[in-house]
Amino acid sequence: MKLGFLTNYSEDEVKFAAEVGFTSLSLAAGPGSALDAQKLTPKEAEQIHKTMEAHGLVISAIGHYSNPLHPDKAKRKEESEYLLKAMDVCKMLGVGVFTCFPGGGEGVGVEKNVALFKEVWLPIVEKASKNGVKIAFENCPGGGGVRPVDWDAMFDAIPGETIGLEFDPSHLFWQGIDYIKAVRDYGDRIYHIHAKDTEIIDDVLAREGILGHGWWRFRIPGWGDIDWQEFISTLIDVGYDWALSIEHEDPVFHGERRQEGLILGFKHLSQFICL
């Protein structure tokens, strides 16, 4: 299994990852990034590939997290066209997984937007399939695909194996959804992992209740309440053997302490996998 983190591409990030012992990176490919789908050339892609290879790293996925089901038709068209170009970026870099949101429409999940989801995503999925790319939807509340009922709606709307999940247990944990059962139920559709922890702040929860605020926060793996040994063991049980990619949203290890947080996450997760 590979171990990496989500980041924007730069040679400094590649060098840092290699020095720590990471074996992969998942790279942002949004507008303005080094992997901008509207600007990246084959020559630039080749250089990125060579730099990664020289440091013993692979690109586990590239991703762009937007709302392709945007209620504004012009914005929706813009997002769809960008995602189509992003499939070419995957092909240029030889990356087999593209990570993204399915889209939330007007703030609701795919379950309530099945027809629009199919209309927008079918041509993108067809191009991804031709390019040998799997599309992995992150189960983020703001992204439109947070619950198993949304996943079922996506997979029913567009059959086949091209679409699956970028599974992030942190989003399920604070909602009370059984993240271990979800791995067992959807193991064959998990194409990438976001490794992010969630800490429940019990004294705040006791006062605020689940409808209140501030009773949970994202943490670096090992600094929250998720059982990473059980989680990884279950991934192995269902046959997952690709990458764990730390998504660093920890408010404690931010800013100047960002790299410290990534190192701590590496130390915790690496005890459960063979790199």
Task: Report on the architecture of this protein.
There is one protein chain. This protein has ten helices and ten strands. It is an alpha/beta fold. It has one domain: TIM Barrel (Alpha-Beta Barrel). Strands 1-2-3-4-5-6-7-10 form an eight-stranded parallel β-barrel, surrounded by six helices. Helix 2 links the parallel strand 2 and strand 3. The chain is globular. The N and C termini lie close together (6 Å). The mean pLDDT is 96.
Summary?
The chain is an alpha/beta fold. It is built from ten helices and ten strands.
Structure keywords:
single chain, 275 residues, alpha/beta, TIM Barrel, eight-stranded parallel β-barrel, two-stranded antiparallel ribbon, 10 helices, 10 strands, 18% strand, globular
